[in-house]
Amino acid sequence: MVDGVVNPAGERSGASGSGGRRGRASTSQFGALGLNLADPRVEASVLGLLDTVEVELRASVSSADPFVTEAARHLLEAGGKRFRPLLVALGAQFGDPTGAQVVPAAVVMELTHLATLYHDDVMDEAAVRRGAPSANSRWTNSVAILVGDYLFARAADIAADLGPEAVRLQARTFARLVHGQIAETVGPRAGDDPVTHYLNVIADKTGSLIATSARFGGMFGGAPAEHVEALAGYGETIGVAFQLSDDLLDIASESVQSGKTPGTDLREGVPTLPVLYARAADDSDASSVRLREILATGPLTDDALHAEALGLLRESPALKRARETVRSYAEDARARLAPLPESPSRHALESLCDYIADRTS
């Protein structure tokens, strides 16, 4: 068993060489997610696993048709944090990370994630993904949907080699992803609490795949069953916390920290957690009343209204409440690690909880 402290980031080195290929994983990229790989043995294990995953990802999307290969590699070569393979690698540290099925398990998770991105961009009519033209804008919506289907199929094919349980888990995770997307598209029904609905959507769309990634790491690393369950619970909770913290960064941070223009969700009319809290508030002070008035108008395409709403949100009780919710999820994720043995790897997963709680405070 290899053990050590890790920093849950997983951001790889930038594009290098022709075609924008991703370079080798490096510890500097882990810092972007607050993960600290302090133990040399775990660092070597995790980095080696991620480098091998990168090679296998490229091989797994290759096709006899050059166009399919190009389209399937489009987002793969655009980069990304590889957070899901990272969780597989970290989960495997509680067993044997050199197990033959650990890398294929990580590839299954990342292919499933990439497939959802192709579909999401069609639904969102996105023009850019990871700093590159989205597949739907470069080709067509039909091509993007079909490429996403192809990646799902490749993930299922590789999962079949891991055994029936892996196929079942991947299929159930896929079902939750779709369920979450449907719920988001339809919106809360009459009588539903919008905040509860939103948190459930995030758990299905984001938390489920991160949970399965951590579970796969433990499973295919041969960790004890109780450790596998703890990893899965941690993965789902930390996944929700990460998404919620991104919601806050969109409002509270400058673009250099969040990676996008502040208030993008506001401008597009996306009701994230701080907005939902602000809408539901019954505060009677002038700022809160004015904020609710502006938010009721829908997408804030008017620059003056957008700037006013962003300023009011940054000073609102709703943002403070959202921060408390993020911290609650981060602490819940930490608590779910309790069954795991004290070790550098467990401390690494705990460090991610600290990072999420601090990044939005």
Q: Please indicate the count of domains.
A: 1
CATH class: Mainly Alpha
CATH topology label? Farnesyl Diphosphate Synthase
Output the number of helix runs.
17
Unreliable spans:
1-21
Strand fraction: under 5%
Arrangement of strands in the largest sheet: 1-2
CATH homologous superfamily grouping = Farnesyl Diphosphate Synthase
Could you say which structural class the secondary elements and strand pairing correspond to? mainly alpha
- Average pLDDT confidence is 85
CATH architecture: Orthogonal Bundle
The end-to-end distance, rounded to whole angstroms, is 36 Å
- Most strands sheet: 2 strands, antiparallel
GO molecular function, one term: metal ion binding
Pfam family, one: polyprenyl_synt
Region (Disordered): 1-25
Cofactor: Mg(2+)
Outline the secondary-structure elements.
Elements: E1 15-16, E2 21-22, H1 27-30, H2 40-60, H3 66-72, H4 83-92, H5 102-124, E3 128-129, E4 132-133, H6 135-138, H7 141-162, H8 164-186, H9 194-221, H10 225-252, H11 255-258, H12 264-268, H13 273-280, H14 286-295, H15 303-314, H16 317-335, H17 344-359
Antiparallel strand pairs: 1-2, 3-4
Helix pairs in contact: 2-4, 2-5, 4-5, 4-9, 5-7, 5-8, 5-9, 7-8, 8-9, 9-10, 10-16, 10-17, 13-16, 14-15, 16-17
